[in-house]
Amino acid sequence: MPQRVLIVGAGFAGMWAALSAARALDLAGRSAGSLEIVVVAPEPYLHVRPRLYESDAASMKAPLLDLFAAVGVRFHQGTVEAIDTGARTILTRDAKGTTSSLGYDRLVLASGSRLFRPSIPGLDEFAFSVDQTDEAVALDLHLRALAKRPASVSRNTVVVAGGGFTGIEIVAEIPTRLRSFLGVDAAIRAVVVEQADAIGPDLGPGPRPVIENALDAAGVERRLGAAVTSIGRDFIALSNGETIATQTVIWTAGARAQALTAQVPGQRDRFGRLQVDRDLRVPDAKNVFAAGDVACAATDDVGNVASMSCQHAMALGRSAGHNAVQDLLGLPLRPYTQVKYVTCVDLGPWGAVYTEGWERTVMLTGKEAKDLKRQINSLWIYPPPADRAAIFDAADPARLVVA
Ligand SMILES: Cc1cc2nc3c(=O)[nH]c(=O)nc-3n(C[C@H](O)[C@H](O)[C@H](O)COP(=O)(O)OP(=O)(O)OC[C@H]3O[C@@H](n4cnc5c(N)ncnc54)[C@H](O)[C@@H]3O)c2cc1C
């Protein structure tokens, strides 16, 4: 029986963990016959979540089978329901309901995150979201279908709940998208509601004036210091007493690590992410590594911690996959480090804002930043070509990632 590195999830972290694990195996001169790398996920596609605020969400995925085949990674289609770190097994269920148990020698947990939906009346029933592909597709269909409804203020109004990174990107894009369905002359209203007293509370004061400028140019109204209290079929009510007539509420506030993290012994942060050491190992579960949105990992020696971002997930995946194989082979591990940190926020037709550093110093704005954002979204975050040499070059954990 070959030894096995099992990777749960085929997102940014899972895909790069698999490719990097295959690279480490190759560098060690070992064949897939003696150590197999298996990815378990519901679908053999990379869902490009950072693009789900754009239109045509259904096309935002990239196939993975040829990529994995090029480097000898096996794909097992299914959803992991249970992890037993004592027995070193996982339980998976496929689309037909058939369960199977798979053993592992090292596990890389990379099952991502989910939008957090607090208990607000009407939220589950009426609010749309752009967190997962199917949710963004449902929003797309709804926006297209609005054109068939009788014209009204509520039909022409979209309210985005949450003024963070995702909320800003979607609300900046919405007026153009709505006009493409309702007509260029339609009286469109786009509103963003944010509980904090400033837009983009986590983005800090650096890029804020640029963001405010862009939202003003798009005619986006802001409700700051206001929480959502209830949502109905054609309204949203706020804690400031205001009720806005709308048939489209998009919930964007908050993310939580995927629920499998609760099945691994260890400490978790307030987002449910597993605390990992510098090698990305879960200290209380020695054979388990975590990467991407499920991992709370230090990025440097001065106290910065990986954010739930594609930028960090890609690099975390590369390091975790590499280390899982090295550990199994008794070879030296490579501590994860990612000192460079950037953000690039799409601001709709106005452009974008690109910042560098954790203090988010604005480096590019408008069209220049938008060109960079397009490059990131259409090139940098997609899988490499299904060519062994190109994959191994791209999967080097020493590679810098900017997304
Ligand atoms: C609208 C939007 C915009 C964003 N914009 C940006 C941006 O501009 N820049 C940036 O850096 N980040 C951005 N992000 C965040 C980024 O998409 C995530 O941080 C990133 O996808 C995390 O990668 P991951 O591999 O950890 O998880 P995911 O990409 O979520 O992948 C998780 C994988 O695990 C699988 N999985 C889940 N549960 C199970 C299970 N039980 N069993 C088996 N497999 C499972 C999933 O199917 C998937 O394959 C954005 C996110 C959204 C939603």
Notes on the structure:
The structure is a single chain. It contains nine helices and 26 strands. It is of the alpha/beta class and about 400 residues long. The strands form eight sheets. A six-stranded mixed beta sheet has the order 5-2-1-9-22-21. The model has no long low-confidence stretch (mean pLDDT about 95).
Quickly list its features:
single chain; 403 residues; alpha/beta; FAD/NAD(P)-binding domain; 5-stranded parallel β-sheet; 9 helices; 27% strand; binds flavin-adenine dinucleotide
Quick description:
This protein has 403 residues and is of the alpha/beta class.
Give a topology summary:
Layout: E1 3-8, H1 12-27, E2 35-41, E3 45-47, E4 61-63, H2 65-70, E5 74-77, E6 79-84, E7 89-93, E8 99-103, E9 106-109, E10 113-115, H3 123-126, E11 127-128, H4 133-146, E12 157-161, H5 165-182, E13 189-194, H6 208-217, E14 220-224, E15 228-232, E16 235-238, E17 243-245, E18 248-251, E19 255-257, E20 274-275, E21 281-282, E22 285-290, E23 295-296, H7 310-329, E24 342-346, E25 352-356, E26 361-365, H8 366-380, H9 388-394
Parallel strand pairs: 1-2, 1-9, 2-5, 9-22, 11-18, 12-13, 12-18, 13-14, 20-23
Antiparallel strand pairs: 3-4, 6-7, 7-8, 10-19, 15-16, 16-17, 21-22, 24-25, 25-26
This protein binds flavin-adenine dinucleotide (FAD).
